[in-house]
Structure formats: structure tokens, C-alpha cells
């Protein structure tokens, strides 16, 4: 079986994963949001006029992961069993590092869901802080690790994992 987004007529279509084995699959992704000292101080102090920035961004990331198939063409709708979005404050850089994790037992991976969770959490932070700093930068959005499926384990920076970076 060849996995491709092209059907027999060469048209874009969703990959048929019917014959793939169900297995435990997970993925981790990250993103970085860097802002002005004033916007970061307001976020840390919990003084943003729109409310709790990180709590809202966490919920947004989780909701987005669950809706990835509605956002990314040709993605499979997945029954995720876990979605986690965490934040690490980096005061020396006025940054928030977002880490997302998605898991399921299924026929296809959850990389897109983890990347979507991190991306939407970052966009939510931007949206809630842009009144103080419209020059906020979202960067370093990337897949960090994936487990499961035919390729097994892949981790960014691990040359032995067999995946492309």
C-alpha cells in the first residue's frame, strides 16, 4: 500500500489508512512567543485586561488539537485520548515557550494535532497581548518528537531515530 495524498487520477485526496494497524501514537511540538518587557510583565503579573492569558491559551490549544481535521485539509479526524499544553516562562528573553503533547491509539499519527495545539496557543497569547505589544514574534514552531506507527520513534536532533528533520 502506498500512502499518498494523490488518488488514482492524480487529484488531492485523504490518505486511505484502512489497512494500517492501530497502534499507540504520540507527538510533541513547541512554539515560542517573544514580546516586549511591558507585555511580558503584564502577562506574568496576571494583569492582562482580557483575563488569564496562559489559561486561555491552554484551552485554545487543546480545542484546536481536537479540531485539526477541520483546519488542515486532508487531515484525518482523530479521537485523541490526551492533549496537553504547557508553558515555560523565559524572563531573560521576555518569552513564553509552549509545549504541546497529543496521544491516541489509531491508524495515523498526531503530529499535525500537536503542531496545531502549539500554534493556536501561540496565536492566542498574541491576540491577548497585542494591545500592549503588536510586534510580538511567534517563532520556533516545530515537531519535537513522535512515537508509534511504522517509523517508530523520531526525535528532533536524534540522527539515529530514522526520521527526517
From TrEMBL:
Any GO molecular function: cyclic pyranopterin monophosphate synthase activity
Superkingdom classification of source: Bacteria
EC number(s) per entry: 4.6.1.17
Reaction(s) this enzyme catalyzes, per UniProt: (8S)-3',8-cyclo-7,8-dihydroguanosine 5'-triphosphate = cyclic pyranopterin phosphate + diphosphate
Classification via InterPro entries: MoaC, MoaC_bact/euk, MoaC_sf, MoCo_biosynth_MoaA/MoaC, Mopterin_CF_biosynth-C_dom
Residues of the active site: 127
Pathway as given in its UniProt record: Cofactor biosynthesis; molybdopterin biosynthesis
Class of this enzyme: lyase
Domain Molybdopterin cofactor biosynthesis C (MoaC): 14-149
Binding site for substrate: 74-76, 112-113
Keyword entries, A-Z: Lyase, Molybdenum cofactor biosynthesis
Subunit structure, as described in the record: Homohexamer; trimer of dimers.
HAMAP family for this protein: MoaC_B
Protein family according to the UniProt entry: Belongs to the MoaC family.
Primary role: Catalyzes the conversion of (8S)-3',8-cyclo-7,8-dihydroguanosine 5'-triphosphate to cyclic pyranopterin monophosphate (cPMP).
Protein name: Cyclic pyranopterin monophosphate synthase
Species this chain originates from: Microbulbifer taiwanensis
Gene: moaC
Amino acid at each position: 500500500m502506498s500512502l499518498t495524498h494523490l488518488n488514482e487520477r492524480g487529484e488531492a485526496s485523504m490518505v486511505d489508512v484502512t489497512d494500517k494497524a492501530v497502534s499507540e501514537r504520540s507527538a510533541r511540538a513547541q512554539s515560542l512567543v517573544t514580546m516586549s518587557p511591558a507585555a511580558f510583565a503584564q502577562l506574568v503579573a496576571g494583569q492582562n485586561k482580557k483575563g488569564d492569558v496562559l489559561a486561555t491559551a491552554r484551552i485554545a490549544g487543546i480545542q484546536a488539537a481536537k479540531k485539526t481535521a477541520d483546519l488542515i485539509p486532508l487531515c484525518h479526524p482523530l479521537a485523541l485520548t490526551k492533549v496537553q499544553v504547557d508553558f515555560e516562562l523565559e524572563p531573560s528573553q521576555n518569552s513564553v515557550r509552549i509545549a504541546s503533547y497529543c496521544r491516541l491509539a489509531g491508524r495515523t499519527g498526531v503530529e499535525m494535532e500537536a503542531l496545531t495545539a502549539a500554534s493556536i496557543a501561540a496565536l492566542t497569547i498574541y491576540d491577548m497581548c497585542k494591545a500592549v505589544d503588536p510586534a510580538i514574534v511567534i517563532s520556533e514552531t516545530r515537531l519535537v518528537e513522535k512515537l508509534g506507527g511504522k517509523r517508530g520513534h523520531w526525535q528532533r536532533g536524534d540522527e539515529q531515530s530514522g526520521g527526517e528533520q
